[in-house]
């Protein structure tokens, strides 16, 4: 079975960035605000048809947050954030869940909005890269998730229909995009994340433990 995993927040814990945001803004809650701003930035890039590297968008979102709160953001701060993103630790349940899937012969793909080189470095640093049969980035199609092109790219990579893929993510927008492209979906309820209970067919499975979630997804 083909399982496709989002990376940031799904497998990697962005909570590790909290100390940076507390230093800059006086509260680690600013990290969530920054990530929402980052999402808005790449959604806008999709809408206007202009693709920019993920790291540039991350820097831009930090500058926007600084301007909003009257905090001066230096170039060094931007680079410190980018380096910290590349060094995010894995969530406690990520490795065991991926190992379980590999042991049972499933095909695992990482599909991320991060740049390809950055994604490899992220997963290497987190000790997860060895579990994946393929690591794919949206930069190959010049469109960020939740546009359909990244999900179709994953299917094309393996020469299968999108209906043969299961997308696992901690973001409702990611799973809505995957579902619209024909994938089945599994929602991992990371802290602070929730799905609209009235969405109906999205997701097919959900849990707050990754191992349980993937067990349910493949036990069909």
From TrEMBL:
**Reaction equation(s) it catalyzes:** an (S)-2-haloacid + H2O = a (2R)-2-hydroxycarboxylate + a halide anion + H(+)
Q: What does this protein do?
A: Catalyzes the hydrolytic dehalogenation of small (S)-2-haloalkanoic acids to yield the corresponding (R)-2-hydroxyalkanoic acids.
**InterPro entries, alphabetized:** 2-HAD, HAD-like_sf, HAD-SF_hydro_IA, HAD_sf, PGP-like_dom2, S-2-haloacid_dehalogenase
Keywords on this record?
Answer: Hydrolase
Concerning Pfam families, the annotation shows: Hydrolase (PF00702)
Q: What is the main EC category here?
A: hydrolase
- This chain's protein is named (S)-2-haloacid dehalogenase
NCBIfam families linked:
HAD-SF-IA-v2 (TIGR01493), HAD_type_II (TIGR01428)
Q: What's its EC? A: 3.8.1.2
Q: Indicate the family of this protein.
A: Belongs to the HAD-like hydrolase superfamily. S-2-haloalkanoic acid dehalogenase family.
């Amino acid at each position: 079975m083909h399982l496709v995993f989002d990376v940031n927040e799904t497998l990697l814990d962005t909570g590790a960035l909290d100390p940076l945001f507390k230093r800059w803004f006086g509260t680690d809650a600013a990290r969530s605000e920054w990530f929402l701003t980052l999402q808005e930035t790449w959604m806008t890039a999709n809408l206007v048809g202009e693709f920019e590297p993920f790291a540039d968008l991350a820097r831009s979102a930090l500058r926007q947050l600084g301007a909003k709160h009257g905090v001066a953001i230096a170039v060094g701060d931007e680079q410190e954030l980018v380096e910290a993103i590349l060094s995010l630790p894995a969530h406690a349940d990520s490795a065991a869940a991926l190992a379980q899937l590999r042991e049972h012969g499933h095909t695992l793909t990482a599909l991320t909005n991060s740049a390809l080189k950055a994604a490899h470095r992220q997963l290497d640093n987190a000790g997860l890269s060895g579990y994946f049969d393929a690591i794919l980035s949206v930069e190959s199609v010049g469109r960020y998730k939740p546009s359909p092109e990244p999900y179709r790219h994953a299917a094309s990579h393996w020469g299968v229909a999108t209906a043969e893929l299961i997308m696992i993510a901690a973001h409702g927008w990611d799973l809505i995009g995957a579902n619209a492209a024909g994938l089945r979906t599994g929602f991992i309820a990371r802290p602070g994340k929730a799905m609209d209970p009235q969405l109906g067919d999205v997701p097919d499975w959900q849990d707050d433990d990754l191992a349980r979630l993937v067990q349910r997804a493949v036990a069909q």
